[in-house]
Amino acid sequence: MTHYLTASDAGYDAERSGYNLAVEHYPEVIIPAETVEDVVAAGRCSSPPRGWTA
User: Which of 30, 32, 47, 50 has its C-alpha lying 20 to 30 A from 38's C-alpha?
Assistant: First the structure.
């Protein structure tokens, strides 16, 4: 995983539009994962949403 997309990046709308066509989603960050390793790396770089406790 070498990149991520935010709303100001080219390609953001194309990536988010395929998620669920019934509802408009606007995630803060989109990680275009292509492999299992990409998904694992994204999980390691993420943090819990604000207000969540473990």
Answer: 50
How far apart (Å, rounded) are the C-alpha atoms in residues 35 and 48? Answer: 22
The sign of the CA dihedral 36, 12, 26, 22 is negative
Backbone angles phi, psi at 8, to 5 degrees: -85, -5
pLDDT tens for each residue of 15-54:
888 766 788 888 888 888 889 998 888 888 776 666 666 5
The letter for the amino acid at 18 is: G
Q: Which residue has the tokens 């994962």?
A: 33
| Whole-prediction pTM | 0.60
